[in-house]
Amino acid sequence: MTKLRSIALLLGAVALGGCFEENAVQDITGTLPGSKIKFFNFGVNAPGVNFYANDTKVTAITSATGTESTTGVVYGGVGSGGFYSGLEPGQYNFTGKIAATVDKDLIVSTVPGTLVDGKSYSMYLSGFYNTTTKTVEGFLVEDPIEGEFDWSVSYVRFVNAISNSQPMTLYAKNTGTTPVGPEVAIGGAVAYKAAGAFVALPQGTYEVNARTAGSSANAITRTGIQLIAGKMYSISARGDITVVSTTATNRPFLDLTANR
Questions:
Q1: 64-94 confidence digits (pLDDT tens)
Q2: Angle at CA of residue 113, ends 111 and 115, nearest 5°
Q3: C-alpha R_g of the chain
Q4: Which residue in 238, 229, 224 sits closest to 258, CA to CA?
Q5: Ordered domains of the chain (ranges, CATH)
Q6: Which of 109, 222, 224, 257 is the most buried (most CB within 10 A)?
Q7: DSSP assigned state of 62
Q8: For residue 51, what are the contacts with CB-CB under 8 A and spacing of at least 6?
Q9: What pairs with residue 120 in β-bridges?
């Protein structure tokens, strides 16, 4: 958040620079946008995209040439380096537009949503990219980041972005303790295009497993996840639930992204 504020203030300073004489003291005070949003490209086989809020481009990839990158946010990626983008509260159509030269700026997904002042959100491209219609699904969830919470623990929630999965529950066990900590459920079963509630966990190294409702078999496993006290995390399921390869790009996978 400190970095986000610094960037916003720096941009404000640049914008104001043309309004004053060269050696004048510049006023960089002002209010930051009231809402925040992250953008995820979790659409299986989807092209790299740039994300827009209405007609305003919100994410971009660094370019050393001075021209717009044709890479965009690729599958499995998070826009803006995983940081939130600040937007004014209001109604938006959030879109993903192809970044490549071929089909440049073609909209592959549109997700309408209303941002409320003081709240945070995440938009996901999800499901499977349709190469005929050149479209992919998407959804928006709120990130309920509390202003005050217990700084001695970490908070985790589960987001399901796998369209061909049944509702799944995420389980976590602390493997950094001796004996290994007991396995605990991170909330209840979460359906596709939904997010569970944040659950407090002690700081540590964890193995997390996603299971379909009523099953004891792990559908997705990830080990060695580091959870730090005072932070909030989303663990999001992406990919194709039918893939059994452990190396395929479209395999089911649990992504860890910090919300705070």
A1: 777 788 999 999 999 999 999 999 999 999 9
A2: 140
A3: 20
A4: 229
A5: 1-32 (no CATH), 33-143 (2.60.40), 146-260 (2.60.40.10)
A6: 109
A7: -
A8: 39, 57, 58, 59, 73, 79, 94, 95, 96, 97, 123
A9: 36, 143
Which of 38, 79, 75 has its CA nearest to residue 259? 38
Residue with tokens 């639930």: 241
Contact in structure between 38 and 140 (CB atoms under 8 Å)? no
Backbone CA torsion sign across 66, 68, 73, 74: negative
Q: Which two tokens stand for residue 49?
A: 């995209």
* End-to-end Cα separation, the chain, in angstroms: 8
| Strands of the sheet with 220-227, listed across from one edge | 184-190, 168-174, 204-212, 220-227
Which tokens in the block code for residue 105? 């700026």
In tens, the pLDDT along 115-159 reads 999 999 999 999 999 999 999 999 999 999 866 778 999 999 999
- Six token digits for residue 227: 């959870």
